[in-house]
């Protein structure tokens, strides 16, 4: 009997350990990270965000666990990934891109959410900003952007602006930049792009409308396939301008907008504040004010654009 009792006790103890190990949350902090699509530019902000964590003593695999997920450009995957984070009771959710931020703001109620590479909730029309939403947004300086185009093309009369109207960031930025052009008497020709497969046709359509330049605002779909649009611009001899400076590496002649390194790092510090339980250190949502001008001289030559010396001097980076 004693032997049976000992075995029973051991069995009960093992079962107890098994149950508690499944139900008790680990001491390791868990971050759920979601990005809309694989993209080297978004990855710059991601790397800087993770660097801010590391610089503050939070290292993946040591004292934090990062669940790194990517929606692969499929908007329908975003809510599924977010729901998995909620089910796993992660400590913080980090979103990279406006569609991911919007979905998290609407779905996640009890877990802090920090966004990067996104517009603010107000910019994209969210009526209520959740108290658990933190992040760093693009203030989208349309005025200076259009100033630069007019310096490059003094007689600018008509531009082509393709965008994906299923992305809130693309719709918002196309409207803001388009309105700025219209305000100055410059005609804007829009065309819809639903996927990267549409980019080539959209570019060809715009070049047939006697435009002076092509412009891409904040649009994940267009940026994912920007090489194709740049190829159209090269063949037509029409300059391609982007509101994301890093996209010049994909063939745009000139890019003006926020600095992704600083953007990601600032967002990472927001995550650090939450992990250290000091989220009230600054306003929940702040703009990134560090702006970059990058010029791709090789692309500019192909696209028939002469960059004014003033802009060459002011550029943060010139790609030869």
Please tell me about this protein's structure:
The longest helix is centred in the first third of the chain and has 22 residues. With 320 residues, this protein is α/β, with parallel strands linked by helices. α2 crosses α10. It folds into two domains: 143 residues, 3-Layer(aba) Sandwich (Rossmann fold), CATH 3.40.50; 145 residues, Response regulator (Rossmann fold, 3-Layer(aba) Sandwich). The N terminus is likely disordered. Helix content is 43%, strand content 21%. β3, α4 and β4 form a beta-alpha-beta unit. The N and C termini lie far apart (86 Å).
Topology (elements, then pairings):
Elements: H1 2-23, E1 29-35, H2 40-55, E2 64-70, H3 77-87, E3 92-96, H4 98-107, E4 113-118, E5 133-137, H5 142-152, E6 158-163, H6 168-183, E7 187-192, H7 199-207, E8 213-216, H8 220-224, H9 226-236, E9 240-242, E10 254-258, H10 260-275, E11 285-287, E12 291-296, H11 297-302, H12 309-314, E13 317-319
Parallel strand pairs: 1-2, 1-3, 3-4, 4-5, 5-11, 6-7, 6-8, 8-9, 9-10, 12-13
Antiparallel strand pairs: 10-12
């Amino acid at each position: 009997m004693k032997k049976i009792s000992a075995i029973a006790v051991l069995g009960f103890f093992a079962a107890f350990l098994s149950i508690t190990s499944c139900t008790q949350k680990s001491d390791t902090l868990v971050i759920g990270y979601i990005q809309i699509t694989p993209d080297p530019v978004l990855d710059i902000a991601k790397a800087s965000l993770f660097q801010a964590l590391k610089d503050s003593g939070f290292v993946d695999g040591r004292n934090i666990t990062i669940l790194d997920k990517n929606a692969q450009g499929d908007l329908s995957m975003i809510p599924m990934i977010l729901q998995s984070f909620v089910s796993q009771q992660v400590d913080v959710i980090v979103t990279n891109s406006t569609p991911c931020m919007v979905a998290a703001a609407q779905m996640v109620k009890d877990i802090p959410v920090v966004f990067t590479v996104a517009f603010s909730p107000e910019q994209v029309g969210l009526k209520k900003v959740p108290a658990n939403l933190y992040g760093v947004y693009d203030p989208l300086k349309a005025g200076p952007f259009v100033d630069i185009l007019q310096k490059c093309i003094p007689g600018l009369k008509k531009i082509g602006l393709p965008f994906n109207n299923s992305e809130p960031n693309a719709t918002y930025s196309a409207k803001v930049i388009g309105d700025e052009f219209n305000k100055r008497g410059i005609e804007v020709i829009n065309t819809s792009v639903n996927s990267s497969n549409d980019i080539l046709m959209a570019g060809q359509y715009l070049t047939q409308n006697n435009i002076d330049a092509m412009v891409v605002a904040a649009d994940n779909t267009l940026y994912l396939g920007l090489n194709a649009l740049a190829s159209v611009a090269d063949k037509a001899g029409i300059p391609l301008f982007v509101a994301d400076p890093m996209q010049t590496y994909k063939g745009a002649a000139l890019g003006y907008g926020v600095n992704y390194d600083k953007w990601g790092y600032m967002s990472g510090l927001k995550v650090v504040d939450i992990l250290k339980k000091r989220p009230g250190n600054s306003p929940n949502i702040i703009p990134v004010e560090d702006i970059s001008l990058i010029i791709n001289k090789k692309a500019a030559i192909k696209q028939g654009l002469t960059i004014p010396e003033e802009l060459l001097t002011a550029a943060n980076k010139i790609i030869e």
